[in-house]
Write a structure and sequence with these properties.
- It holds the Pfam family Lactamase_B_2.
- This is Metallo-beta-lactamase domain-containing protein.
- It comes from Piscinibacter terrae.
- α6 runs parallel beside α7 and α7 crosses α8.
- It is built from 8 helices and 16 strands.
- It is globular, with a radius of gyration of 21 Å.
- Helix content is about 25%, strand content about 20%.
- The chain has one domain: Ribonuclease Z/Hydroxyacylglutathione hydrolase-like (Metallo-beta-lactamase, Chain A), CATH 3.60.15.10.
- With about 375 residues, it is α/β, with parallel strands linked by helices.
- The termini are far apart.
Length: about 375
């Protein structure tokens, strides 16, 4: 009995220590802030907020199965490139130049796109750190270098953030941009994270679905998505979103993370069809489709939007799912050909300019020896 009591005391002590350690870790700035006061009251006024959290309509029902997830995890797919990804490095002076008329985009990897539209420079979900993690010593590491270094960030007018997961909202990148005066357009509640990171309040613009803001003649529309949120746990404490950016002459849509649903058609009906659609195609699984659509659904989403050109994003940079590394883009290109969708597959850092022909290369396939 004495031994059992000693073991019980030891286990209780260990549990208490672990609880304290976890609590202390969660206090690190990288985990962000909490909505309080006026910010919390505004959250509660949102039509997407139900009880104590944001919810999809209809609600997301988890279909996760431990056995199915383990089977997928133990699959033999090659989940990292077996060759050096051909990254096109953006010269530091690129962001020192004035934004020329027209629209151009550089995919920087994952969901990060540098967009120049009608004189305004915008970044989507900028993550330029080595890891998509609250720590830079552990967590999913980049499968290729970023085409642009954090230290080279300057003259970026605006950032749009789709949600607060670590592969979409990176503290180090945000802080670097904030020091340069960048303005941040984010879903409800995400401003608490930015304030924790000492981003000036005047540079934070929290928006609900269908809210709009103006930036030097370019309209930034917060539009729906179907996902979830939380930096410490899946508590849906912040609002996920997609974004439509519309200038006098050009327009672009950014899906963020989302399952396939009717919001793509609704965006087109309310705001018109964009010229460029940056839509997620990667990080999906059979049990995730309600919040992480697959490549075929991405092609359908593009068609629902009525967009001219599809730039696939959210693939090829972090190992976050169970499918093969190149599978999302291979499936997306195949489906686009079947459905007559104009898809572009630039290398990370390669420029896409609307009005200029773009020649696709299957750079994501293993080079022949």
């Amino acid at each position: 009995m004495k031994i059992l009591k000693k073991v019980a005391v030891w286990l209780l002590s260990l549990t208490a220590v672990l609880v304290v350690v976890v609590w202390l870790v969660y206090q690190l700035p990288s985990f962000g802030g909490v909505s309080e006061g006026a910010r919390l009251e505004r959250l509660r006024q949102s039509r997407q907020f139900h009880g104590t959290r944001f919810e999809n309509t209809p609600p997301y029902v988890s279909l996760l199965s431990f056995m199915r997830e383990m089977k997928a995890y133990m699959g033999d797919e090659v989940r990292e490139p077996q060759f050096e990804v051909p990254v096109v490095r953006l010269p530091a002076e690129q962001l020192g130049r004035p934004v020329a008329p027209g629209m151009r985009a550089w995919w920087l990897g994952h969901a990060s796109v540098l967009l120049e539209i009608d004189g305004v420079r915008i970044l989507t979900d900028p993550v330029l750190s080595k890891r998509a993690s609250p720590f830079q010593f552990v967590g999913p590491a980049r499968l290729h270098p970023a085409p642009l270094a954090i230290g080279d960030l300057k003259n970026v007018d605006a950032v749009v953030i789709s949600h607060d997961h670590f592969d979409h909202l990176d503290m180090d990148t945000i802080q670097a941009l904030a020091r340069g005066g960048t303005h941040f357009y984010v879903g409800l509640g995400i401003g608490a994270h930015l304030e924790r990171w000492e981003v000036p309040a005047a540079q934070i613009h929290e928006m609900d679905w269908w809210d709009s803001a103006q930036l030097r003649g370019v309209a930034i529309h917060c539009t729906p998505a179907r996902h979830y949120s939380g930096r410490k746990r899946m508590d849906n404490s912040t609002l996920w979103a997609s974004w439509l950016v519309k200038g006098p002459d050009h327009s672009a849509y950014f899906s963020g993370d989302t399952g396939y649903a009717g919001h793509f058609k609704e965006v087109r009906e309310r705001l018109g069809a964009p010229q460029l659609a940056m839509i997620k195609i990667g990080a999906y699984g059979d049990t995730w489709l309600d919040i992480h659509m697959n490549p075929e659904s991405a092609i359908q989403a593009h068609r629902d939007l009525g967009a001219d050109i599809l730039l696939p994003v959210h693939w090829g940079t972090f190992n976050l799912a169970y499918h093969a590394w190149e599978e999302p883009v291979v499936r997306a290109v195949k489906e686009a050909q079947v459905k007559g969708v104009q898809i572009v597959t630039p290398r990370p850092g390669e420029k896409l300019e609307l009005g200029t022909p773009f020649v696709n290369q299957a750079w994501y396939l293993k080079p022949a020896r």
